[in-house]
Amino acid sequence: MINGFSLHDTSNAPAASAEILNGVEKAWGFVPNLHRVLAESPAALEAYSTLWRIAEKTGFTPRERNIAYLAIIYENECTYCIAGHTYLSRMAKVDNDAIAAVREGRPIADPKLEALCQFAASITRQRGFVSEADVAAFKAVGYDNRAVLDVLVLAATKLISNYTNHLAQTPNDAFMKSAEWSAPGKLKPAA
Question: Looking at residue 144, what is its pLDDT?
């Protein structure tokens, strides 16, 4: 890890973070390293945890949500989150070929999932400045304005985690062993 970040647990995290970490451990059976880094700031940990719960209320199925997350993460080049969301995508029964396609930056065979993947990637890459043609292509496969805005919820969630992992170089958790990923390297740290 870099920049002086630590992996906190309930014994050394600020009290407000320790409470959230306890909830994460109850829900997941362990505390992921991302949460342990975020625990330095109770506000950051709460923001991420809250957005994560809100993201589950979007109009997307778990399968769609995971494809969008992977597309956003790919654009942000977060090696920690690609590994973690590869595992979560498998749990959500996302097709292995679709997962591999996003991880490799190639098209998904399913046209609706591909449109979602492309739109989520465009939103991230263009920082929301997408064209009318991009929105139209997304809607042409059956999505609507709610879905357009729901992608923003997913992007906001991943902004916190991806940027945290870039800042801290969060180490992968044990469950990610078979899902490591090397980023394409388009993004470079500031000099």
Answer: 98
